[in-house]
Design goal:
It is a single chain. The protein is mostly helical and 105 residues long. It has a domain at 18-89. The protein is 65% helix and 8% strand. It has helices at residues 16-49, 53-86, and strands spanning 11-13, 94-96, 102-103. A 3-stranded antiparallel β-sheet has the order 1-2-3, with no helix packed on it. It is rod-shaped. The protein starts with 10 loop residues before the first strand and ends with a strand. The chain binds zinc ion. Zinc ion (ZN) binds next to loops. This is Glycine zipper domain-containing protein.
Length: 105
């Protein structure tokens, strides 16, 4: 692959839309996952009551953590899918390290 502007071979793939989609989707997914897990966490906390005060804290935190992580992973994947659509259409897919030009092949 060669830069169409200066002919340099130092061209990198950007996938800007894909990365942006992953970040945005991941954050949104983590938030919705964590908030959805608050009800989940409450169930965990209820189960934790049997194990005492420490169990309540562990149950709630673990539930929110797991929900947030799962939400972030799913959100990132979904975001990548939609972000990929913009790569090559809205965002340039490649950039030249030599002259700094961005372009789409
Ligand atoms: Zn160049």
């Amino acid at each position: 692959m060669v830069c169409p502007f200066c002919g340099s071979g130092r061209v990198t793939t950007r996938q800007f839309g894909k990365r942006l989609g992953c970040t945005v989707g991941g954050v949104a997914g983590a938030l919705s996952g964590a908030s959805a897990a608050l009800s989940c966490g409450e169930i965990g906390a209820c189960a934790g009551v049997l194990a005492g005060p420490a169990g309540i804290a562990i149950g709630g935190v673990a539930g929110a953590l797991l929900g947030g992580l799962a939400g972030a992973a799913v959100g990132c994947m979904a975001g990548e899918e939609s972000g990929e659509v913009f790569d090559g259409r809205v965002f340039h897919t490649h950039s030249c390290e030599e002259c700094g030009h961005s372009f789409t092949l």
